[in-house]
Amino acid sequence: MNSLEEISKTLIKSKKIGITYHVSPDGDAVGSALALLNGLRLLNKDAYLISKDLISENLQFLKGSSEATGKVLSPEDGTEIVVVLDCGNYDRISADLNYYKGEIINIDHHVSNDKYGNINYIDIKAAATAEVVFMLLEKLGISFEEENDDVREIATCLYTSLVTDTGAFRHSNVTSRTHLIASKLKNVGVNNMNIYQNLFDNNSFEKMKLIGKALNNIKLLFNGKVALIKIPISYGKELGIEIGDTSDIISFALQIKGIELAILIKEIENGSKVSLRSKNNFDVRKIAENLGGGGHVKAAGITLKNINLEEAEDKVFNEIEKVL
Fold it and tell me: What's this model's pTM, rounded to 2 decimal places?
């Protein structure tokens, strides 16, 4: 595996750098990308976002979020490097790189990463990709010792990533390094209260109704060890909203006493998207990998193309039965 020192030298030598992440980017993907984007611009690099996706409303407070317009789908002419963040495999990149001839730097923390880059740095001990980006920015010469507006904006992006990928520092992936980095970010002026309010206290009335509708139809299975939530596209149409990110909805299922595994199956235009979350020692990554997905031991996902909700449920439960 390549080192952060090598990656920093490669970036310093480059002038035009594209940055992207996985499809349906979550807080870690977005925060990591925007932190690197703003950091490289501090170093006078021509850095820009490549994104098929728009950034969700609750992350729009981060500097640079409005640049993900869904219109820059592939690297611009003259791009020397594309950095892909928080993305385990090539097919899930939120960019069209099929005709790109330059270098790809793959930075991630997922065990299931396919190492598709010309340069790869995968730190499976990192609670979030943002931990790696923080260390990379330090290698690039950006100091998190003194507060100023530019550094505070970068730190806000990174802190947001840490909060979202650790369940607000509740998950078992949190380490002493996670807290140390969070402490350094806080010391340069991060407003953690503002971040929490934007992330968790900023739902529209329609989104709250969606949450209620989803939870109203929750099912307990396998003697109360498994909770299942299904969200058809029709829910969004009824409420007049894009369903978007549902990580907040699946977290409610894990709050049920006795639950070991929470499953959320969301209907999308060309199939179904499955999210898996677990407590204790249940490894959802193996289930996801068996169905072509990936992730972490306690949080994983799968996209099942051209598979409806009922078929997706059958496939997932066939795998769960092998374990339970």
Answer: 0.90
